Amino acid sequence: MADRLTPEQRSWNMSRIRGKNTKPELLVRQLLHAKGYRYRLHGQAGKSRLPGNPDLVFAGRRKVIFVNGCFWHFHDCRVGQHSPKANALFWETKRTRTRNRDADQRRQLEDAGWKVLTVWECELKDGSALENQLVQFLGTQQTHREY
Fold first, then answer.
1. Were 109 and a residue from 2, 53, 90, 114 both cysteine, which residue would form a disulfide, CB within 3.0 to 4.6 Å?
2. Taking the CB of residue 36, how many other CB atoms lie within 10 A of it?
3. Which residue has the higher pLDDT, 138 or 86?
4. 131 touches 67 (CB < 8 A)
């Protein structure tokens, strides 16, 4: 049986988890940049911030992409459906609140005329399918920069 972490150890571990510039996000950014797409980062659309601070903003196309971790955002894949046994009620509440917040922010963006794509961490395993999904969502490349 694995050793249990103390609350201090768990807190330290959790403090090391990033919300921006994660490996999945960097992979999507690298793929899109190599394909010639240009974007703004973390919710910047001109001088204002968008609801939910999308990871990638394509202002000229009025499209945004969120790159979500399956566990943290309660995806319906195997990883997203894993329920921690320790402090189960806390995690259930936290992850459900995150899922509800995501849905609300998506609705706000769509109501404001933005198209929204969520890329899940589990989808990064199939690079060609991911590339097809991204290109289909974004459409053809524009010849000018979208900054």
1. 114
2. 10
3. 138
4. no
**Who's near 122: CB < 8 A, 6+ residues apart?**
70, 75, 77, 78, 79, 80
User: What are the tokens at 139?
Assistant: 């459409």
For the ranges 43-52, 65-74, 78-87, the one whose mean pLDDT is highest: 65-74
133: tokens are 């999904």
Domains belonging to the chain, first-starting first, are 19-138 (3.40.960.10)
DSSP 8-state symbol, 121: G
Confidence of residue 143 (pLDDT cuts 50, 70, 90): very low
Given this model, what pLDDT does residue 16 score? 57
Distances (CA, A) of 41 to 3, 12, 15, 27, 106: 39, 27, 22, 14, 17
CA distance 95 to 136: 30
Query: How far does the chain reach from its first CA to its final CA, in angstroms?
Result: 52
Phi-psi category of 20—alpha, beta or left, where left has phi over 0 and alpha has psi -120 to 50?
beta
